[in-house]
Amino acid sequence: MARTTTVLSALLLNLLGVDVFSGCFAPRAPCCDKTAPIVTTLLFKVAVAVVLTNLRVYPRGLRRLPGVCFFLYELICCLLLIEFAEKVLWAALENLVYEKISNITGKVNSSSSLDHRNKQSDVWTQRTR
């Protein structure tokens, strides 16, 4: 199990806007940056932190590390998992819900969402070159 102090430190750093692994994940959709409710994102991050306190993020062989090294290792693992959950899982779910609600209410037509997806894939191909 990850120590609570390490998970809370990683959560606090993430809430303060420290993105250590920001270059590893695709950028969020522009529609979600403006309309994302802060409270739901915060609740999701706290839920991920609760899961991390019950999850062992280190192999047994690393238990013999000195205290500071072990803390840094756990912190980096927790930061990676929190950022991954936020930027990949939560952003995809949020984007899906936003598109479905927009389609139901008729505010966004399907061609604009397809154009947005094409722009995202163009950005991804440019980043990988």
Strand content: under 5%
Globular, elongated, flat, extended or rod-shaped: what is the shape? Answer: elongated
Tell me the major beta sheet.
none
Multimerization status? single chain
Overall pLDDT metric: 76
Number of helices: 5
How many angstroms does the end-to-end distance come to? 39 Å
* DSSP strand tally: 0
Computed over alpha carbons, the radius of gyration is 18 Å
The helix-and-strand class reads: mainly alpha
Q: SSE order in H/E notation?
A: HHHHH
- The helix content is over 70%
Structure description:
InterPro entries: DUF4818. Residues 1-22 form the signal peptide. Pfam families: DUF4818 (PF16089). Keywords: Membrane, Signal, Transmembrane, Transmembrane helix. Residues 109-129 are annotated as: Disordered. This protein is mainly α and 129 residues long. It has one domain (4-128). The chain has helices spanning 4-15, 30-35, 38-53, 67-105, 110-128. Helix 1 (4-15) packs across helix 4 (67-105). The chain is elongated, with a radius of gyration of 18 Å. The mean pLDDT is 76.
List keywords for this structure.
single chain; 129 residues; mainly alpha; 71% helix; elongated
Care to give the gist of this entry?
The chain is built from five helices and no strands.
